[in-house]
Design goal:
This is Pirin. The chain is mainly β. The protein is about 5% helix and about 45% strand.
Length: about 350
């Protein structure tokens, strides 16, 4: 078997490097201890760089949080965040007045557009044992024509995510969750109307893939003009069109050719990203993304002028209490309880 669909293989870093139309993917995997009354860790924080705790050698991190792990209020401009939470919970709040608690398979899709502030905290609700968190936050770029759209917050709940399940000829399980795009007859709902992913011509696919030991599965061929990356983040070894790849690597693929995966002796987990390139200049300064340095300067001026609507919450690290279930409160006041 030839490795004709493999373009390049490179180690995963932090964040994961991606291809246009994606900007990058931040992967978080934390084994938090039991929580305390403030929904933070019931453990000493001594020796940590509180407010800048990103030490990859730790089992868990506080990130920019000081009491609760996570990312207190901060601005975004000119792109979208797609946050897939496979384990644990995230508390969302934003400058539109929207809020939510989501996780355990849910997906949040937020279009920053012309500017929004939001916080994303990781409440440790279990006080009797550990709190596991695993999430992917994918930064998806917006084209110039959509850089200044109104901000938008949406949820794709776990029971709305299409789930492809199959077995290979040997009975080994294959599982693909389709956050965006389609696979065969399964198609994810469009939740962000101004997204690059909203136009089916752009064929933006965001999938999580799990292969049982020994499983064989082929990613179908697509339009050759698309970009494809397969992020192999957990497992032992995978054959990608006959080429052995260890976990913690990104495999860049030719989109116009099918790719056959044959798994090794352990379950393997991957994130698959595909899309038509926007193919415009990208200038990024932290959480601000534009097409020129002038765009970034204007974004700073706008933020300094009105803070993108201000912050209507009592805390920058807003959480939603120890007893609240999964929910979303939208900017128009509508509340969905899960």
């Amino acid at each position: 078997m030839s490795n004709n669909s493999v373009l390049n293989i490179k180690p995963l870093g932090f964040p994961w490097q991606t291809s246009d139309p994606f900007l990058f993917c931040a992967y978080h995997n934390d084994t938090f201890p039991a929580g305390n009354e403030q929904l933070g860790p019931a453990a000493s924080l001594a020796g940590r760089s509180i407010g800048q705790d990103f030490n990859p050698n730790q089992e868990w991190r506080m990130y920019h949080g000081q009491t609760v792990p996570g990312f207190p209020a901060h601005p975004h401009v000119g792109f979208e965040t797609v946050t897939i939470v496979t384990k644990g919970l995230v508390d969302h709040a934003d400058s539109l007045g929207a809020a939510g608690r989501f996780g355990n398979g849910d997906v949040q899709w937020m279009t920053a557009g012309k500017g929004v502030q939001h916080s994303e905290m990781f409440p440790l609700l279990n006080r009797d044992g550990g709190n596991q968190l695993e999430l992917f936050q994918i930064w998806l770029n917006l084209p110039r024509a959509s850089k200044k759209v109104e901000p938008h917050f949406a949820m794709l709940w776990s029971d709305q995510v299409p789930h492809y399940q199959a077995e290979d000829a040997q009975g080994n399980a294959i599982s693909v969750k389709i956050i965006s795009g389609r696979l065969g007859d399964l198609e994810a709902p469009v939740v962000s109307p101004n997204s690059w992913a909203a136009d089916p011509e752009n064929q933006v696919n965001i999938w999580t893939i799990e292969l049982a030991p020994g499983a064989e599965w082929t990613i179908p061929a697509g339009d050759p003009a698309l970009k494809r990356d397969l992020h192999y983040y957990r497992g032992d070894q995978l054959q990608v069109d006959g080429q052995a790849v260890r976990s913690q690597h990104t495999i860049q693929l030719k989109a116009g050719e099918a790719t056959t995966l044959i798994n090794g002796s352990e379950p393997s987990f991957m994130l698959f990203l595909q899309g038509r390139p926007i193919d415009e200049p990208v200038v990024q300064h932290g959480p601000f993304v534009g097409n020129s340095q002038g765009d970034i300067q204007q974004a700073f001026r706008n933020y300094q002028q009105d803070q993108f609507g201000g912050w209507p919450w009592s805390r920058a690290d807003q959480t939603h209490g120890p007893d609240r279930g999964r929910f979303a409160k939208y900017a128009d006041g509508k509340v969905v309880e899960k």
